[in-house]
Design brief:
15 strands, 7-stranded mixed sheet, about 20% strand, single chain, Rossmann fold
Length: about 350
């Protein structure tokens, strides 16, 4: 089968690698779509993925082979490649290690994942795709689950005002999930015109351009002079974390959803007197995937404005796609179609 193999030094190569066969408790999934995640772009940009890695964890497809002891899946079933509940003792280290360091763990897996024609999964790993969810929608279940997790562990209450910094895919999902959770208004800060326009299409109450507007002044004015109750930092770049603390109101909360790979300076004297809370959010839990599928099926989360025909690319175009996503201008969400 074909796979996009990361070779190191910001370079992919399309290679023929063995097509997997299932063990007794495994299934083979033929990948239909694999969305490109910002985490993978970070692994590319900072060259932290080991050579030989086949990345991609936002994918869906069809079961093509099942192991002899598999009981819950049949050939032809549609599935997303994650969200299942691990059996006792099989939980991922990211959820069990009390001293986990994600930067050191980020790309240590040797598994072949979504940037390939097929992948091998344990029977418990995938989730079935509901009938009302298309394959295109299902390919974005994982990033939606990340936003669901961030909103669920935040202090967002019915009627609260929120701000989302960064309208990449995660930010656009945070916008929609916060609305679904009862936010009275969500303001988005985003410099890229295509992403700003998508935020408007998805229901942002206001969109601020940080390159031409004073974000703090605009946001405070839009929130009755108080600032928002919750700020989700989905950018994780430069001064966005410090900006989040400067935006939030007294007793509010900043939620860091992005994964910054470089130092982010903060000047606490500016905002610490407001006694704001800080919460980091990382990845998602199985329940978040299930909620994500429900939101997609019900239409409370809409992926259509995030997807365009130009955003679907063949495996052979993955190098150019990653290079473009390092500093996106017209890109919103790109999806590999193996």
């Amino acid at each position: 089968m074909k796979a996009a193999v990361y070779k190191g030094n910001k370079r992919f190569e399309i290679e023929e690698i063995p097509t997997p066969a299932p063990g007794p408790n495994e299934v083979v999934l033929r990948i239909k779509y694999c969305a490109i995640c910002g985490t993978d772009v970070h692994c590319f940009l900072y060259d932290v993925a080991p050579p030989g890695t086949v990345m991609g964890h936002e994918y869906c497809g069809t079961i093509t082979a099942v192991g002899t002891d598999v009981s819950k899946w049949n050939v032809g079933d549609r599935a997303v490649g994650g969200g299942g509940t691990a059996p006792p003792g099989r939980e991922p280290a990211i959820r069990t290690d009390p001293r986990i360091n994600y930067r050191e763990l980020a790309s240590t897996t040797s598994s072949v994942r979504g940037y390939a024609e097929y992948t091998l999964l344990q029977e418990w790993e995938p989730l079935p795709i509901p009938e009302g969810v298309t394959d295109e929608m299902a390919s974005l279940c994982e990033p939606c689950a990340v936003a669901v997790h961030a909103v669920r562990i935040s202090q967002l209450k019915l009627g609260d005002q929120a701000v989302v910094l960064g309208a990449g895919p995660i930010g656009l999902f945070c916008l929609q999930v916060a609305k679904a959770a009862g936010a009275s208004s969500v303001i988005v800060s985003e410099p890229a015109p295509a992403r700003a326009e998508t935020a408007r299409a998805l229901g942002a109450d206001a969109v601020v351009d940080p390159t031409s507007q004073n974000v703090e002044a605009e946001v405070v004015a839009l929130t009755d002079g108080l600032g928002p109750k919750i700020v989700f930092d989905c950018a994780g770049l430069g001064s966005t974390l410090d900006q989040a603390f400067n935006l939030v109101r007294r007793g509010g909360q900043v939620v860091l959803v992005a994964v910054p790979w470089e130092p982010m300076p903060v000047l606490a004297a500016d905002w610490m007197a407001r006694e704001v809370g800080f919460q980091t959010s990382f990845g998602s839990h199985p329940d978040d995937w299930r909620v994500s599928l429900e939101l997609l099926e019900s239409g409370q989360v809409n992926v259509a404005p995030m997807l365009s025909e130009e955003g679907f690319i063949p495996l052979e175009d993955i190098q150019e796609a990653f290079e473009a996503l390092v500093k996106p201008t017209t890109q919103v969400q790109m999806v590999v179609r193996p």
